[in-house]
């Protein structure tokens, strides 16, 4: 099968799959640029707002109303499908995605649908072979922070056994 190098990652890809692979990179770049613009706008907005100090924990916050909910036991937002309760409306809205059968973010490589832009970003790593999270003990790499943390908590890990650690002493 004839292959060619991806213009973004230089990975050798079969020619019939190359366009789809490169489109995945383009989509990731567009998402990254969009996030960067959004983050810049948020930063500018925060500079304009005066941050207030929380009388409970002493930290500074621009939106004291939202922050104060974290100190309260009151959960005034209720999911109408499962009865779950939440302190903030945004937490309820994020939760409601679990009741949505189909995601609206679609992978350009395999057409898998996911529910959030972050899930799509993580999914794209499976096609790109990107594993940015490394175990500090054995250097094994993972595509998600959660995968690495689960690996570290596994008591049967070879990298946690004394004979393996002896190589590093």
UniProtKB/TrEMBL annotation:
Residues 32-47 have a biased composition (Basic residues). It is found in: Nucleus. Residues 77-100, 105-132 form the C2H2-type domain. GO terms for molecular function: DNA-binding transcription factor activity, RNA polymerase II-specific; zinc ion binding. Transmembrane segments: none annotated. InterPro entries: Znf_C2H2_sf, Znf_C2H2_type. Pfam families: zf-C2H2. Residues 27-47 are annotated as: Disordered. GO terms for cellular component: nucleus. This is C2H2-type domain-containing protein.
